[in-house]
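Regression check, pyridoxal-5'-phosphate case 398:
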Amino acid sequence: MLQMADRMQVLGTETAFEVLARANAMAAQGRSIINLGIGQPDFPTPEHVVEAGRKALADGHHGYTPANGIPKLRDAVAADLWRRHKVEVSPDDVLVVPGGKVTMFFAIMIFGEPGTEILYPNPGFPIYESVIKFSGATPVPVPLYESKGFSFSADEVLAKITPNTRLLIINSPANPTGGVVPREELDKLVAGLEKHPHVAVMSDEIYGEILYDGAEHVSLLGYPSLRDRLILLDGWSKTYAMTGWRMGYGVWPKAVFPYAERLAINCHSCVNAATQYAGIAALEGPREAVHRMVKAFAERREYIVAALNGLPGIRCANPGGAFYTFPNISGTGHDARSFQSRLLDQEGVATIAGTSFGAFGEDYIRFSYANSLEAITEAMERIRKFLGNLPRSQAAKG
Ligand SMILES: Cc1ncc(COP(=O)(O)O)c(C=O)c1O
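Current build output:
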């Protein structure tokens, strides 16, 4: 009998990939499937970025690069952070890794161990809770409430800090809710954190450029009192429609950087060289494609929020960022998991149950609107039919 490490029993997963596999299998059998499950832009990577990757391969960039990323790419990241946040970051503090997830994994594994606690948003990106458990630390959920626009309450976060708290994870704009934490709440949080200098913060800002209706993204990089314990997680996947290229970065406190870099050397050596050249082109090149994509998301958001609010038993808040809506479905009489699976089986619409993002996601469903308006319109029709077919007693509930 093979004997695996105990920690393998607590590693979770991301349901979006399972739903994607099931939706693809159903499509392969000839079913008409509309995928509003997976969280990736439905746009191609901008052509000048693809061309830079192609050129890097043609120019012979086939070998290892420095583990932390090629210098010109780290310079471009620092310049981009200055452009967006007017904050000075040393390129030496930037660690380029294969995707946003890697910064998350490293940060949690660096700080988490048995006997320690890590605070994380719930509902939130499922990998936070999964890796916290894998590290041996205790996951301590920070609940996010629909009534607060899915932002957190700084007082509630601060009240959860104990002497064992090692790391606080923040994500704004958020997956799965699209919530954006307002500046006042962050000001309050950062002021409160001054009393807890033993707590590091990882701010996942991967959706920081996908915002609507003038919503403001406030980077935690802008708070000098946090800089020596802040890990910024960002990357190319969402802003530049580059999920399959696998590249992201962390900005690390100087004292922690060497450990993160050592993990990179132990784990993946460096990011694919051609991808890094494409990443420079993304940050330094024209931004029209990004603006066009965000504009398209904004139109779809407007449509889907209104359409969901017009369906019986569904109530949908207006998200300030990312490309997700997180409607409350308690009035339909379904729990989140059965809504997800029956909607896919009966009508061929793939969504993700709120419980895939943590216990506080019960009563919610995540819709990704990274799909065409036509597909979203058709999905809404199918959901109306699905809800209309509910037995009367269920439809009346709530
Ligand atoms: C909040 C959040 N952080 C990080 C990531 C990971 O991004 P990447 O594909 O670059 O690893 C995602 C992807 O869905 C996400 O939603």
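Comparison notes: The first helix runs from residue 15 to 28. The chain has 13 helices and twelve strands. No diff flagged against the previous build.
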